[in-house]
# Entry
Amino acid sequence: MNPDKTEPEGPRVGVGRYRLNLALLVVLLVLMVVYFRVHLELYVTQGYLVGGTLSLWGLLKLIRARSDWCVKEAGIEPTKALLGRPGGTELLIVGFIVLAFLFGTTSSIYITYKPVVGAASEFEVQVTSGDHLYMEPLAVTSYDRVAGRPYFPRFGAKENLTFRITKPPGYAPLKKTFGAWSNLSVEVPAGFDQRRLLLLLPGPHLKDELPKTDDPAEVAEKYVLRLRYGDRVHTIEDFRVQGTLVGGRAEDMEEIWLRSDVVLLETRLGRHQGMREWPAADKRRLLGRWLGEPRYHGTPEFEAGQTVTVEIVSERGETLLPPQDIEIPEGSVITPVILEESQ
# Structure
């Protein structure tokens, strides 16, 4: 053995550079995980995620084994060979730039099924921007709980989106702002308020003043019901002795009514103070007019806590029912309101 013969030196590795690159690598990996969790995790199915994770793990093992073999042949400690050189810092900076670009140009919209007591097992959600659809309708069920997608690349200003449950009806729209590099995650139906409908019922003292539904179209005196809420005024022409639903689109209200518990409503109304002394036959007759074939009159949606003012006037301008304030309650989808002269 020749004592003058020395082993060739491997590439020089700086301890400070190694520590810096290691810290940068940890931060980069954390940011990559955050990006995945925010925009991609819900988009990837569980089966694909598991398979992809296992495949990625195997690939990393193969790369690491190959890298270890290469650097060990050169007599360099593997980890320091990868992280202890200036070129490693440059690669990590490039990684940060790419990741910053991804964060700045990726947005995502997801809906997730989160039931409440008595909720349906299937929902369809429509997302609109102004008057046009923003994306294809999304559907979630009790077994397929996530729907949505990431948007890349996405530039531009914020957009005001409206999420509306179209199937089944009975829920108020939900408004959200969709900005750049943002994630919108909406829970269905837990994130939506129930729609607030009013069932307007001419009280016993008005039944002899107003026309009946089976009266001819042309009657001696027609009456108009006016709804005031905020700075809006809505008019219902030819108001008669009939239940009238207001507080949403007419087609939605019809489906909500068909799914409602009419027997429960009838029981509640039969106990109203103004009807307790009525003969049973007269009570059944009025309840039949109220609940038999209600009128669905489309109006803008109401919100819980909002005050709606109702009054009834004749076409000649004479007041039949003075203005009455009705506060939209929490919890109930359909709130019956008996309109009384004495209120």
User: Anything to note?
Assistant: The first helix runs from residue 15 to 40. Confidence is low (pLDDT under 50) at residues 46-56, 69-75. The chain has seven helices and 16 strands.
